[in-house]
Write a structure and sequence with these properties.
Chains A, B: Keywords: Hydrolase. Chains A, B: This is Alpha/beta hydrolase. Two copies of one chain form a homodimer. Helices cover 39% and strands 20% of the residues of chain A. Chain A contains seven helices and eight strands. An eight-stranded mixed β-sheet of chain A has the order 1-2-4-3-5-6-7-8, sandwiched between helices. At the A-B interface, strand 8 of A face strand 8 of B.
Chain lengths: 233, 233
């Protein structure tokens, strides 16, 4: 397996591919959760599994202020507010949602530029099939990305609060989607998860509900057959 | 592949197995939906796929008054009431639920006797691992069966109304379960499906929600990795 770190502007990323990958190997964009980064062990494990199981080429990048990228003063204020609220036993979903929304506005153009650069590589077909997978912060980013960029043709999302902005973005997403909803996440709330599922404009959409909070998505809940079914070779 | 029809008392059934099956091949009991039978093409297709994909031995039996089994006068009255209600545009979930409950009370002992007979075969290990899969009527039967018979160790259910009796049975089911919930089934209702999911006593449970009615469960919604993960060899 190839593991190739790259840098595009100020954005650090990693590409994983099979040694024998052809230019028709579908691209799977993998987002990391809030506070994590593109080299987080959970993400790396999922990326390597997708290469080995399905022959996909997988790409991850660090979100603004995550991984190797310095956190801005403004972002630090969001983080401080989150920690304060949590310590005081106050709800944090609103703060997380606003913070993630701000990060997502910055991250979407970075993902699009990454995709431009990937499609310009000789190892990648220009009209290669592209999927997106990622929970929490990555869903905040991915849902907006899928609403704006028709190159994304299938996606797995979950563990994200249904703000008005996100509901609006979801309504403009019409590709096949699989949504994960942890059923006992007091912060996110069941109603928010059901509303987000309802909002997607996709006719081919599935919601996977399972006990527990969004900090512990069981790997078995992600239906790994999904991208194999939807990404074209 | 072996396809062996059998008859046990007044109950007709079919067994599918790999030519090379050992006595440790897990058993998958497949129930048919209301109005269908053990040789319905959809069921046969799923059974053959499970044999070929996972090496399971699959067994299906006709429910009371279904397939080759004559319908009693009492059952005919349920069917007539259902048709009348549907033609009059009245809700039928209540009638279907009562009818299915009555059929299930009769069908559970038949499934248990079938399982006894299978375990007595030299081709089947006495403590073989057993799963159950089936929607609508088959779920009405299977949920009660799993609540009563500890030999069932994993199950896929769905498309069934959450009557008090069924909620009670579900609360006594603690094995891993995967539940399918068609999101736009006006007869069953979303609340009923969510209540049934909540009722299961299982810590390992997943709900798959998808657009459409229970008459058209997309095959892709059944996560075929489920039994491969949970049935012991």
């Amino acid at each position: 397996m190839l593991e190739r770190p790259f840098r595009l502007g100020g954005v650090a990323g990693v590409l994983w591919a099979a040694e024998a990958a052809t230019d028709a190997a579908p691209l799977l964009l993998m987002g990391h959760g809030g506070g994590l980064h593109a080299r987080h062990p959970g993400l790396v494990g999922r990326a390597r599994a997708a290469v080995m199981r399905d022959g996909f080429t997988v790409v991850a990048i660090d979100s603004p202020g995550h991984g190797e990228r310095p956190r801005s003063d403004e972002d630090q204020r969001w983080v401080d507010a989150m920690v304060l609220a949590r310590d005081a036993g106050r709800p944090i979903a609103g703060i997380v949602s606003e913070f993630n929304g701000s990060l997502a506005e910055r991250a979407v153009p970075e993902w699009r530029a990454t995709l431009d650069a990937l499609q310009a590589l000789p190892e990648v077909e220009p009209d290669v099939s592209v999927g997106f997978q990622g929970m929490t912060l990555a869903s905040e980013i991915g849902i907006r990305l899928a609403a704006q960029d028709a190159r994304i043709t299938a996606a797995i999302f979950g563990g994200v609060f249904a703000s008005d902005e996100l509901l609006d973005a979801a309504s403009r997403v019409t590709i096949p989607v699989e949504i994960l909803l942890p059923w006992d996440d007091a912060e996110l709330g069941r109603e928010s998860g059901l509303a987000l599922f309802d909002a997607f404009g996709s006719s081919d959409k599935t919601l996977h509900v399972f006990p527990g909070s969004h900090f512990r998505v069981p790997e078995a809940q992600v239906d790994t057959r999904f991208f194999a079914r939807h990404l074209r070779r």
